[in-house]
Write a structure and sequence with these properties.
Elements lengths: L2 H11 L12 E7 L4 E6 L5 E7 L3 H15 L4 H6 L19 H18 L4 E11 L6 E9 H21 L15 H15 L7 E7 L6 H15 L1 H7 E3 L4 H16 L1
Parallel strand pairs: 1-6, 6-7
Antiparallel strand pairs: 1-2, 2-3, 4-5
């Protein structure tokens, strides 16, 4: 069974969706995974009417934090300069951050992954990595001790969306809505992508039974806030409050598996 159908099946099993009616039976499923986000329209009789995706997910936040640490830790300034990075800029390439020291990069990713998980529930996280690198002049070890605020990571992600992701989308085959200007924030990206899906299926927001947010990245505060804002932009705050279904905790990741099992048992 297709994952969007499984998500809807699982959500129905837990009575998380509003009841169907003649004018609003379809469900828009937004699945924010690690590497990508998919937007799918599922009809009332469980058919996928439209599906598209773009390369944004939970790993985007980890990559953004790793890049931020590389730019701001003086032990890596020589590498940041060599790759055209600055303290307020990003790589012009659509790629993951790199370091010549693979072990240091791995430790940065492990610490950043933990910090991003922590920032889903807190507004600040402290990163401490002893003996991360060596001072080239004194040959003494350098330790990373860094406090990072959730707002800083969110700013990094929004900058990445505006400067790197949207130009990448516009140059490819991933359609954004022609009714909207090029997005510069995550909420604007969601608005444009949702409207594109609706336009391709000749639906309006009011033809949706629900907008269902699932996936591991669904627990990230900026994702939830941005999607709520995007939905309100499309049809108003009351619509967003009545239509958005955001799963909590591990259920956001497990709902597809649960729905697939239910679908198989019913078949």
């Amino acid at each position: 069974v297709a994952e969007p159908i499984a998500a809807v099946t699982g959500a129905e099993h837990y009575n998380l969706l509003p009841p169907k009616d003649a004018n609003a039976s379809s469900v828009l499923v937004i699945d924010v995974g690690g590497l990508s986000t998919s937007i799918s329209l599922v009809s009332g009789d469980k058919e996928v009417l439209h599906s598209s995706s773009f390369p944004f997910g939970g790993d985007t936040f980890i990559d953004a934090l790793v890049s931020h640490l590389i730019r701001n830790f003086d032990g890596f300034q020589h590498e940041a300069a060599d790759r055209g990075l600055s303290r307020d800029g990003h790589s012009p390439l659509f790629s993951k951050p790199t370091l010549s020291d693979a072990s240091a990069l791995q430790r940065l990713y492990e610490a950043s992954t933990h910090a991003i998980h922590e920032l889903s529930n807190k507004t600040r996280s402290d990163i401490n990595i002893p003996y991360l690198t060596m001072d080239l002049e004194t040959r003494q070890p350098k330790h990373l001790e860094f406090g990072v605020a959730r707002a800083v990571v969110e700013s990094e992600v929004e900058s990445y969306i505006s400067n790197s992701l949207v130009p990448h989308l516009e140059s490819g085959d991933i359609a954004l809505s022609p009714s909207f200007p090029p997005p510069t924030t995550l909420s604007a990206l969601f608005s444009s992508a949702i409207m594109s899906a609706l336009e391709k299926t000749s639906l309006t927001p009011f033809g949706l039974r629900a907008i269902l947010l699932v996936g591991g990245g669904a627990r990230i505060p900026l994702v939830r806030k941005s999607l709520n804002t995007a939905t309100a932009v499309l049809a108003g705050d009351m619509y967003a409050n009545n239509t958005m279904v955001m799963l909590e905790g591990e259920l956001s990741e497990e709902i597809n598996v649960i729905g697939a099992a239910l679908w198989g048992s019913e078949g």
